[in-house]
Design a protein that fits this description.
ornithine cyclodeaminase, domain 1, Rossmann fold, 15 strands
C-alpha cells in the first residue's frame, strides 16, 4: 500500500487535470452515502469535530476521515487533520493512504471552479475571493482556470493576510491583476464571480449588493445556524449545490431561509452530478444570479485521490 504525503499531493496536482477528472467522476456511475459529521462537544459553534466520508466508483473505494479542532491554533497545531484510505474496486485490496488535508484544498477549489464552469457567464472576468486563509489562493487559481479572469480582488478581515494571498496568486499568475481590498460591498457589486471561503457566522455577502448576471460560490460554512450570505441572495438567485443530501443537512445558507418559510428544498435547481451529466443546463440567461453552495463530498475526494495515485504510482 502506498503512503502519499502532502508534499507529493501538491507536486502531482494541477487544476487543468483535476477539474475534468472531477467532472468525469460525477458524471459516471458511483456510490456516495451521506457524509457523517459528529460534534464531540455540546457547543456546536466551537466544538471539536470528527467526520467520515465514503464513496466508490469503478476505479476505487475511498473513505476520508478528518478531525476539526478549532482551538488548536494557539497550541501550534493544525485545526484540521485528514487522511483518505483507498481500496481497489475490483478486489478490495488496500491501495493507498493519501494525505487528506492537501487533497481537500485542491478538490474544494476544483469543485467550485467546475460549478462556475456551468453557472458563471462565459465572459466573466472579475473575481472576488472572500477569505484570506489557506484555501483562498487555491480558489482564485481554480476559477482563473475555467474563466478569462483579468482582475482578482481579495478580501479578508486582515488586510495583511489578504495581501499575502494576493502575492501568492501574482507569483503563479502574473498575467492577472490582483489586489487586496477593504471595501467588500463595492467589490461585490463589481464582481462577475464571488467566491467565499470564510469562517463567517453572519452573512458577508448581501443580495442587495450583487448585480444581475453574477455567479456566487460559498464553501466556508458547514453549520446549520451559520451562513456566508443572506436570505435575500438565496431567494433572488438560482440555487445549485454539490450534494443535496449533504447541503440540506448542514448548510445554514439554505436551512435558515427554509426555516423562515421563504425557500424550499425543492427550489434547489440541481446538484453537481446532474450538471455533470447534462441533466440540467446550469445558467439559463445572462442576467440570472446563481448560487453554488458546497459543503464537500466524498466523491470529489475520491476523484482527486485517484488522480494523485495514478500519477505517482504508474
Amino acid at each position: 500500500m502506498h503512503v502519499i504525503e502532502a508534499s507529493e499531493v501538491h507536486q502531482a496536482m494541477n487544476f487543468e487535470e483535476l477539474i475534468p477528472a472531477i467532472e468525469e467522476t460525477f458524471a459516471g456511475t458511483h456510490g456516495m452515502p451521506q457524509r457523517n459529521v459528529f460534534s464531540l462537544e455540546e457547543d456546536s459553534d466551537h466544538s471539536d469535530g470528527f467526520a467520515v466520508l465514503p464513496a466508490w466508483n469503478s476505479k476505487a473505494i475511498g473513505v476520508k476521515a478528518f478531525t476539526h479542532f478549532p482551538e488548536n491554533g494557539p497550541k501550534g497545531l493544525d485545526r484540521l487533520y485528514s487522511k483518505i484510505l483507498m481500496f481497489k474496486r475490483e478486489t478490495g485490496e488496500p491501495l493507498a493512504l493519501v494525505d487528506g488535508s492537501s487533497v481537500t484544498y485542491w478538490r474544494t477549489a476544483a469543485v467550485s471552479a467546475l460549478g462556475s464552469q456551468y453557472l458563471s457567464r462565459k465572459n466573466a472576468s472579475r473575481l472576488l475571493v472572500c477569505g484570506a486563509g489557506n484555501l483562498a489562493a487555491y480558489m482564485a487559481l481554480a476559477h482563473a482556470t475555467v474563466r478569462p479572469i483579468t482582475q482578482i480582488d481579495i478580501w479578508g478581515r486582515s488586510i495583511d493576510k489578504a495581501e499575502k494571498v494576493a502575492e501568492q496568486i501574482r507569483m503563479q499568475r502574473p498575467d492577472i491583476s490582483v489586489a487586496a481590498i477593504t471595501d467588500l460591498e463595492h467589490a461585490a457589486g463589481q464582481a462577475d464571480i464571488i467566491s467565499c471561503a470564510t469562517g463567517a457566522g453572519e452573512p458577508l455577502i448581501l443580495g442587495e449588493w450583487v448585480k444581475p448576471g453574477t455567479h456566487t460560490d460559498f464553501v466556508g460554512n458547514h453549520s446549520p445556524n451559520r451562513r456566508e450570505c443572506d436570505t435575500d441572495l438565496i431567494t433572488k438567485a438560482s440555487v445549485f449545490v454539490d450534494s443535496r443530501v449533504n447541503v440540506l443537512s448542514e448548510a445554514g445558507e439554505l436551512l435558515i431561509p427554509i426555516e423562515e418559510g421563504v425557500f424550499s428544498k425543492d427550489d434547489v435547481k440541481a446538484e453537481l452530478a446532474e450538471l455533470a451529466r447534462g441533466q440540467h443546463k446550469g445558467r439559463q440567461t445572462e442576467e440570472e444570479i446563481t448560487v453554488f453552495k458546497t459543503v464537500g463530498t466524498a466523491l470529489s475526494d475520491l476523484a482527486a485521490a485517484c488522480l494523485v495515485v495514478e500519477k505517482l504510482t504508474n
